[in-house]
Design a protein that fits this description.
heterodimer; A: Alpha-Beta Plaits; four-stranded antiparallel beta sheet; about 40% helix; disordered C terminus; B: about 220 residues; three-stranded antiparallel beta sheet; 7 strands; Dimeric_a/b-barrel (chain A); DUF3291 (chain A); DUF3291 domain-containing protein (chain A); WH_DNA-bd_sf (chain B); WH-like_DNA-bd_sf (chain B)
Chain lengths: ~170, ~220
């Protein structure tokens, strides 16, 4: 659906402070990888701290928890950047720099194109994924939903909708 | 169609040649080109190509080969490429794929990246060729044997068109791509002037082999 974009939010708990030499190789890769994201096909937006090139200074979920928050045109665009670019090397070395998360640390959800999502919204979606597992409102790459499925799920959440939405859909084949 | 029937189609030598020719190309192939490569007529090639499509071994795409469009451009040519579907047969029935997925899921959850990479590096060493490959061409042959479908770039970098661990690498990319890199590091450890590193690109394996470990960067 062209009217929707895919938001992704992930958290990482640092093993050491960001200025620790043991994180130097991670920190050195931030600018090039962020630049690659900005220039990647299908990239829409990423969160940065006011006046800074990235969001590593923002710690809304804990002093040692950095966040990564971006919006993409579709799943393939995000996939190709995350796993088929230089970004994969950062992920490959994640255990050197970040603690292992017992809970989900990465969430995807669809937003209306043009909407700039907030960190509060992102934290809610992550909490939803952790509490209820993957759903059209909060999912992962391995359990992805389409924008259509997400829209359908939103409609059925509206009071009085749900049952009324179904016959209408059936009445319009194709 | 069942896997065993689809694979059995390749017993026909013409079909096999057509399949191998199309599968080895980075772009879609027209009937004429495939016919010429297989040394058969266009009609016979079309018949066999469509059989391969019906079996899910190839898939079709339509594009005007001339680049023209609109009235007078003619009917779009039927083009063929390798299908993304995987076919396999094991007799008696075995299901290592499910087992591999479960093991990977457990390793991912437990954060066993280092342990997996150490095991992969050891396995790579155990699989080393004797004597070790001399030069990029022999490295390419060794990687081809292992299913990577290597292709040299203009600058001598060897890129792999196929990931032997494709389905797993899609589910657990950092874990499985790290495993793959370590496996290849072990496999090529004793090859002078050739190194491996990650350089993932869409549609390719995450790893490349590059000339000379010493002249990098």
């Amino acid at each position: 659906m062209s009217g929707s974009h895919l938001a992704q939010f992930n958290v990482a708990t640092l093993r050491f402070p960001l200025d620790d030499p043991r994180l130097a190789e991670f920190v050195a890769r931030l600018d090039p990888v962020n630049a690659a994201a900005d220039g990647a096909p299908g990239f829409v937006w990423r969160l940065t701290e006011e006046g800074r090139p990235d969001a590593t200074g923002l710690r809304p979920l804990g002093d040692d928890v950095i966040i990564n928050f971006s919006v993409w045109e579709d799943r393939e665009a995000l996939w190709d950047f995350a796993y088929r670019s230089g970004h994969l090397e950062l992920l490959r070395r994640r255990r050197e720099w970040f603690q292992r998360h017992a809970e989900a640390h990465s969430v995807l959800w669809w937003i209306p194109a043009g909407h700039v999502p907030t960190v509060e919204e992102a934290a809610e979606r992550l909490a939803l994924l952790r509490a209820e597992g993957p759903s059209p409102r909060a999912f992962t790459f391995n359990s992805a939903y389409t924008a259509e499925e997400a829209a359908e799920a939103e409609r059925s959440r509206e009071p009085g909708a749900g049952a009324a939405g179904e016959p209408e859909k059936i009445a319009q084949p194709g | 169609m069942e896997d065993i029937e689809a694979i059995a189609l390749l017993q026909d030598p013409v079909r096999r040649r057509l399949y191998e020719y199309v599968a080895a190309r980075d772009h879609e192939i027209g009937r004429n080109e495939a016919a010429e490569a297989a040394g058969v007529g266009r009609t016979l090639a079309a018949f066999h190509l469509d059989k391969l499509v019906a079996a899910g071994l190839l898939e079709t795409a339509s594009r005007r080969l001339t680049g023209r469009s609109g009235p007078g451009a003619g009917r779009p040519a039927k083009l063929y490429r390798r299908s993304g579907a995987e076919r396999g047969v094991s007799l008696p029935a075995r299901d290592y794929r499910t087992a591999a997925g479960l093991l990977a899921e457990a390793a991912e959850t437990a954060g066993l990246d280092d342990e997996l990479r150490a095991a992969a590096r050891r396995r790579g060493r155990a699989l080393r060729a004797e004597p070790p490959p001399a030069g990029m061409e022999e490295v390419a042959a060794l990687l081809a044997e292992r299913g990577y479908e290597p292709r040299p770039d203009e600058d001598g970098t060897l890129r792999m068109r196929n990931c032997p661990f494709h389905a797993l690498s899609e589910r657990f990319p950092p874990l499985v791509c790290g495993m793959n890199l370590a496996l290849l590091e072990g496999l090529l450890e004793d090859v002078p002037d050739v190194g491996v590193r990650m350089d993932p690109r869409p549609g390719h394996c995450c790893t490349v082999a590059v000339p000379s470990k010493n002249n990098q960067d």
